[in-house]
Amino acid sequence: MSLANAIQLDFDDGIDRKTLKRLCERFLRINAARRLRAREALASRQQVVLDLLPLIFHLNHPSLPGYLDQHCPFGLAHYAPGDDELAAAQRLARTFRMRSAGRRRPDIQALFVMGSPGTLGHSVASDLDVWLCHRPDLDAAGIRSLEQKAEAVSRWADSLGLELHVFVFAAEDFRQGRQRVEVNGENCGSAQHYLLLDEFYRTGIHLGGCYPLWWLIPAEREADYDRLADQLRDFRFIRADQYIDFGAVPEVPEAEFLGAGVWQLYKGIDSPWKSLLKLLLIECYARDRDGGLLSLAFKAQVYAGTTDPDALDPYLMLYQRLDRWLIGLEAPERLRLVRQSLYLKTGVPLSRLEQRSATWQSALLQTLVEQWGWDRKQVRNLDDRQLWRAGDVQVLRRQIVSELTHSYRFLSRLARTHAVKAAIRPQDMGLLGRKLYAAFQRKAGKVELINPNLAPSLAEENLSFHHQSTQVEGRAPGQGWLLYRDLENPLDAVWQPVIRRASSLVELLVWSHCNGLLTRATRLNLRAGDSALDLGGLRGMIEDLQANLPVPDAPATREALLQDSRPLSILLFVNVAVDPQAPLTERGLHKLSGRHDSLGFSGGRENLVLTLDQVMLNSWHEVSVHRYEVGDTLIQCLKNILAARVAAPGQPPQLTVCCHDAGHGPSIQRRLQTLFEDVQQTFFAGRRGPHPLRYVIEIERRYFVLQFHNGEPGFVALASRAELLSHLQRPQSAYLPILVDRHALEDDPALALVCRASQPDNIQVFFQVGEERAWVWVVDEHGSLSHWQQPFTSRRHLLAPVMRFLSNVSERRQLRRALADAAGDLEVTCSEVLQRAGQWVLERRFGATDELPLDGFELHAVGVQEGDQPVRFDIFCEEQEFSVLEYGDQLIPAVAHYVRSRRRDGSDYPIYLTDLNLPHDLDPQMYQHDLQTSQYLEYRMALERDLNRALGQGMRRALISR
After folding, report:
1. pLDDT tens string 540-598
2. Could you tell me which of 958, 949, 862, 960 has the C-alpha nearest to residue 914?
3. Which long-range contacts (CB under 8 A, 24 or more apart) does 876-879 make?
4. The whole model's pTM is what?
5. Four-residue CA torsion sign, 947, 953, 957, 958
6. How far apart are CA 637 and CA 505, in angstroms?
7. Chain CA centroid to CA 842, Å
8. 248-251 contacts: CB < 8 A, separation 24 or more?
């Protein structure tokens, strides 16, 4: 340590310019030592970057890196390149010649490097953060040109293997908090100001230009900074163009602790060692206000005469501050983590260094390690991170997450207790919060990434996958899986530690893949137990993962985090370790028909899809695994994928279905790939949606109707064709088409054709004629489907009643509306379902009801609603009224008797209603101005069924009486 006389600046009695010069030279001497240390830490080919940075921005020379055009601002204040810099430039570009720019106002006030370079915390992985401060009145075009040049210089440094970030701004903008920055991987955005300035003053290395005015204000007078700075300028102790002013570092406001703390949590996800130290420093600053800031302690030591770069090392001073604070708190575990973080941040492997390769950094670190009382085993364990395995990393990660969680809770308490509003833009806070959520939030199915840059690699040479059923007696039974390492003899499993347990094999594979344990070079062992899995199937699944699930090698981008998460890729593994035909084989059943649909296979209509394992990678780089093995697995999975798709309807995920079933794997894979693509393309046609529709899927002998409600997908399971038809008849609030899966309703092609032919804004009648019976379908204006069958005598007798009924309902609806509302008039169309040349087709029939004259009289029912009682009807036959008040429960028999008496031959051909009125309060809790046609048809069919039953019973009684 080199001690000089302490410097005292007495602003009240007068200041000596010589003293100011001596003080400045003292800071520059410390600065020169740090700059040399920063240079020596770089590889020889990278040192030219640090050497030439001032010259590159001082000149606008086409031979130097980053040159854009002749209009780019240049000139670094008070900078004159030395012979070494000029020689380095000529070695880089032989055509380089120094040219004088004449006497012009420089555009750049100062150039600094800040952060870990030149400190104990510098490692081979450290980057260079450069502050380029332009003059405050530089125009926007000039600033943009400087930014473009800075980006070009960064690319040049990157070509040399050096990560360089140049931040372009004006000191005045910084002082006023007007930086034009956003949160990204290297910029804290609006998260911090005074803490960043504190770090800059204690770590900054001056490369060229004006010196910081902060050097000339004593630490104990920081509160009077502005007044004393004005005094220095007003009395001309310094020239205004000689120093650059970033402002004072007073007490850090509590609002900034919150913003800066969240920012460090953000950084701690990917770079834990440095961020842990800074998070603890933030907490120390917030809880130990009397301890002051490190930048002021650094400045005070310089004033006191300390110039030894070891004693003033920023990371050493940071550690010493945390050491005193944590010892006072009696927190040995946290102190141990601080020491470990500092050691790993340096990247210096003391156990492998030879004496002749020792540096100032290793010597200083060795001194600390000895003070900590670490033995060689502890040091060697930290140095051999390449030998760490999953268990080692998980233990350390838990400690890190525990500390990060502690910091988060501390910041939250700070915000609540002091009602602190964070010194950070809401958008930046939301961005940081989302990254924290993506990295640390635990939720069902999410794969935990255990190695956030803790160990170089977790790759295993040999992995063994054991089914739970292989375990010896005494272990818990079940269908889970276990993962072992280097298990040459399977019987040794009882003695070996389990790396991980999981309920499904896919979960185990994905965890191993995403955390780097499982590579293409890993040897595999399998003990399948009573599961239906072989080594070939296991290898196939691993190949699917490696081909379709890229492990993100970088955190999610800022743009991705600013949007809601969306699925990027989805893998579906079908029937993992399960034989879908095992139940059939046990019952001695085999294929009995030509049906090859995997969801309705053979004569038994067996569903060959028993289980599904869904693996999803989203845009926030979260990986999740969900297993579907209970209930309606396929539909549950499909519903969840549709729900995930809603966030970005225009950006479909890459979906891949994988099935390694030896017998039916390819057909199952093709069937599900087609199904999932069809459903997504239907609900999100045109890359918009979700569109309002009902999608019908048939599995085994059951039906499922998928539909979105308020943006959320759901489904209804229906056990039979009759239940499906009843469901499709239900009223809808708006037109909702029925779309049928390409393999559904293969046994009822007429119904499938009718569903596909549905169109909005009209009423469609479809019919199919058999030898003695006919089938009728009506799709109304909202897409509700009514269906019935009846005896067939002629097309006229089949169609005239229903067409007359529909015309009456439609006419009455139109009359209730405004005369100008011509759009409300619904056309009634009619088509016949036919089979021609093996194809089912529709042919249009009958244009209007008057083309279908039918003898007979009008039969009109009028509904009466009383409270929440079922609707009752008064029926009018010709001019005869049958009131429910008069006839009560005998209303239907009375009407049937009257109709029979009016028939000349007394025949029992069916009764048809020609018109029907329904009350608008069918739902007691809601008035319905316009009822759907399907609602009229539902009551019509019920009344006609009761009337015809009564008619038949009356005929039988008449015959008996004869």
Report:
1. 999 999 999 988 667 788 888 888 899 999 999 999 998 887 666 555 555 544 567 78
2. 862
3. 877/902, 878/902
4. 0.80
5. positive
6. 18
7. 46
8. 248/214, 248/217, 248/222, 248/223, 249/194, 249/197, 249/198, 249/201, 249/214, 249/222, 249/293, 249/295, 249/296, 250/194, 250/222, 250/223, 250/225, 251/289
